[in-house]
Amino acid sequence: MGLKRKRHDFVELLIIDRPEAANAIDLDTAQQMSTALDELGRDREVRAVVITGAGERVFSAGMDLNAVASGMAPAINGVAGGFAGLVRRQFPHPLIAAVNGPAVGGGFEIVLACDLVVAAETASFGLPEVKRGLMAASGGLIRLAQCLPPALAFELALTGERIDARRALELGLVNRVVPTGRALDEAMVLARQIAANAPI
């Protein structure tokens, strides 16, 4: 399906809905996300947006490697807003990632482009592109270096290893770590707290 959208009062929920492909982003999904974020950016009723992956197995494995192999990477990265319609976008509303499982490659870059992060205990984060002869070219290397001390950012970028949710919390990459199955609920609580404030 690509993307599901749900509105809860002043909070919009975007669900990357490709569980059979580890919620990887193909061109159709990227276009749907870009269109949704274009619309939400103009919507004065929206006060927060929550992004999650379908199911409990994975948040997002990043760009669909089958699409990469078929030459679609430039088109996927070229949608308005960049990869996933998000990584090169100046978005006017708070973005909250509800990370229900591993967020790797472009999935981690989506998380890094969000303002707040709620992670399940089973979540993990990493940029494994270096292990596959690829480059994390959707802002992950830049944002990681802005979020972490240089030595830690270099280590994650150069080894391609993952960190778990608790380590991400210690490093300040995550706001809250919650039991498995609770990431979306807790992200929605956080979004409603934001939405209850003055919309300035």
Helix and strand layout, with pairings?
Elements: E1 2-8, E2 11-17, H1 27-42, E3 48-53, H2 65-69, H3 73-77, E4 95-99, E5 103-104, H4 106-112, E6 116-120, E7 124-126, H5 140-147, H6 150-159, E8 163-164, H7 165-170, E9 176-178, H8 183-195
Parallel strand pairs: 2-3, 3-4, 4-6, 5-7, 6-9
Antiparallel strand pairs: 1-2, 7-8
Helix pairs in contact: 5-6
Q: Main beta sheet, described?
A: 6 strands, mixed
Q: Indicate the low-confidence ranges by residue numbers.
A: none
State the end-to-end CA separation: 34 Å
Helical residues, percent: 25-40%
Overall 3D form:
globular
Indicate the mean pLDDT: 94
Radius of gyration: 16 Å
Give an account of the 3D structure.
This protein has 200 residues and is of the alpha/beta class. The protein is 35% helix and 20% strand. The protein has helices at residues 27-42, 65-69, 73-77, 106-112, 140-147, 150-159, 165-170, 183-195, and strands at residues 2-8, 11-17, 48-53, 95-99, 103-104, 116-120, 124-126, 163-164, 176-178. The protein has a six-stranded mixed sheet with strand order 1-2-3-4-6-9, sandwiched between helices. The chain has a three-stranded mixed sheet with strand order 5-7-8. The protein starts with a strand and ends in a 5-residue tail after the last helix. The model has no long low-confidence stretch (mean pLDDT 94).
